[in-house]
């Protein structure tokens, strides 16, 4: 929870830092909030690199506006307010940060700027981590992108962070009535985008991978390393939803069509058949980091990240990300 409360030790220390005018002292106090603010920006923007930039922008704005902190609200509330408005300003200027039509038979839309979020950068605060999986999974992040920016901010402040309507209204310079109306519309959109998912993000949620999930990821990696196409096919649900970003959006297909398409595209053919993989997690979801060794190359090089949504022991959704030359996952570039 980040809403207003009486000035505590953290706020008093921060006020002293503000009055001292010492940027190092100021940075030392604000830096402890970096991870949670970065997750907040990621929920708003769905792009890890943009979230990093806006978190840095938040600290710059906080320094420039330091005299405006009077201790009437918690320091975290003040920083979240700045971060939210930095994201809104960013979205106002970037017309490429909205979902685009899928181009498929169904009238859906795709978030082609989506990037995965490395679990190693999630907050260490237990209160934040307990809800992290429900509100950091790719399905949630994608659904949020279908909200207009201000509705997006209202939903995250009210339903994810648990702010009172009055605090959210003050942060966004809206009336309480406007916040309440925006939240109702946002919730309706989220229900349409996440029809089969839990919508109560304020209650505790597990964030540990199950043994079932770990087993499927291992089998998925083994199938790549052994070139076992039948085994790979058997791991996929026949109503698979597949995406490989940023080249294409989500495509529903059968398991056989998915594997057949990968083979016809060159995977598992000569030059693309020497795989190694490691199990990892991004967005609190099971994932496989896939490394490919080209003929004559002594090393396996990071090729792609496959993020898996597993239902009843089968892969129901597979979101692939091109990971070549991408720094945002913190994975070793070679094996």
Automatic annotation (TrEMBL):
<dbReference type="InterPro" id="IPR032710">
    <property type="entry name" value="NTF2-like_dom_sf"/>
</dbReference>
<keyword id="KW-0805">Transcription regulation</keyword>
<comment type="subunit">
    <text>Interacts transiently with the RNA polymerase catalytic core formed by RpoA, RpoB, RpoC and RpoZ (2 alpha, 1 beta, 1 beta' and 1 omega subunit) to form the RNA polymerase holoenzyme that can initiate transcription.</text>
</comment>
<dbReference type="GO" id="GO:0006352">
    <property type="term" value="P:DNA-templated transcription initiation"/>
</dbReference>
<dbReference type="InterPro" id="IPR013324">
    <property type="entry name" value="RNA_pol_sigma_r3/r4-like"/>
</dbReference>
<dbReference type="GO" id="GO:0003677">
    <property type="term" value="F:DNA binding"/>
</dbReference>
<dbReference type="InterPro" id="IPR013249">
    <property type="entry name" value="RNA_pol_sigma70_r4_t2"/>
</dbReference>
<dbReference type="Pfam" id="PF04542">
    <property type="entry name" value="Sigma70_r2"/>
</dbReference>
<feature type="domain" description="RNA polymerase sigma factor 70 region 4 type 2">
    <location>
        <begin position="140"/>
        <end position="190"/>
    </location>
</feature>
<dbReference type="InterPro" id="IPR036388">
    <property type="entry name" value="WH-like_DNA-bd_sf"/>
</dbReference>
<keyword id="KW-0731">Sigma factor</keyword>
<dbReference type="Pfam" id="PF08281">
    <property type="entry name" value="Sigma70_r4_2"/>
</dbReference>
<feature type="domain" description="RNA polymerase sigma-70 region 2">
    <location>
        <begin position="31"/>
        <end position="95"/>
    </location>
</feature>
<dbReference type="InterPro" id="IPR014305">
    <property type="entry name" value="RNA_pol_sigma-G_actinobac"/>
</dbReference>
<comment type="similarity">
    <text>Belongs to the sigma-70 factor family. ECF subfamily.</text>
</comment>
<dbReference type="InterPro" id="IPR007627">
    <property type="entry name" value="RNA_pol_sigma70_r2"/>
</dbReference>
<dbReference type="GO" id="GO:0016987">
    <property type="term" value="F:sigma factor activity"/>
</dbReference>
<dbReference type="InterPro" id="IPR014284">
    <property type="entry name" value="RNA_pol_sigma-70_dom"/>
</dbReference>
<keyword id="KW-0804">Transcription</keyword>
<dbReference type="InterPro" id="IPR013325">
    <property type="entry name" value="RNA_pol_sigma_r2"/>
</dbReference>
<dbReference type="InterPro" id="IPR039425">
    <property type="entry name" value="RNA_pol_sigma-70-like"/>
</dbReference>
<protein>
    <submittedName>
        <fullName>RNA polymerase sigma-70 factor (ECF subfamily)</fullName>
    </submittedName>
</protein>
